[in-house]
Amino acid sequence: xxxxxxxxxxxxxxxxxxxxxxxxxxxxxxxxxxxxxxxxxxxxxxxxxxxxxxxxxxxxxxxxxxxxxxxxxxxxxxxxxxxxxxxxxxxxxxxxxxxxxxxxxxxxxxxxxxxxxxxxxxxxxxxxxxxxxxxxxxxxxxxxxxxxxxxxxxxxxxxxxxxxxxxxxxxxxxxxxxxxxxxxxxxxxxxxxxxxxxxxxxxxxxxxxxxxxxxxxxxxxxxxxxxxxxxxxxxxxxxxxxxxxxxxxxxxxxxxxxxxxxxxxxxxxxxxxxxxxxxxxxxxxx
Length: 286
Prior knowledge:
By secondary structure, this protein is mainly α. 80% of the residues lie in helices and 0% in strands.
């Protein structure tokens, strides 16, 4: 497994960070939302206020060993389900995710507890920053547009950006620590700060591009919904007119059938001239 850790490429790094971020988003978007609804029904407070309370409790719990253990178990589960690491053990999963935040030349010198402490600090800080972002930017999306799948993607992008920043900070912390000890250590090319910066820059550009596409998609979705509504109305009008036309056609056909069934009249009435009118023409004028 150690050899696999040293061979993690940038694409795999993004995949693993996305898995960890998705677990954090799932808690905030689904579980906390359900708790907020239950609190809303119990207290009759506004749903947004109830969500703020549950989010605050969530942040408080994020620093406890129990919360970290549950989060790491969830990350382990989804790593096996959604990545190439289908048979990874729990301890190997800890090593794998620790390798995302620790330069490889330091990783072997860390104990299992030290790796857990690093992940606890990083994930705990990520949860706090993500909660702040929700309050400032995303709470209306979670409460008012909860069924819009685009909102989940935006939250995942937000967490992923935070995790990448935490990765940069963690790498820089180890590098600065090495410099302060004035020990000469050869840094492998895979952990140079330039590579990390390129990864972060590429991700940030992809986020900007993705955000633009999402905005465009929202506009197109609204236009499509409006056109669909208009089409449904026109279709109903057409069906109503068609039904009316068929009804009138049936009435006309019935009248024609009735007229065709009537026998023609044999008596021809002769209109006799009025006698008074004849007398008028019998008058002679001198």
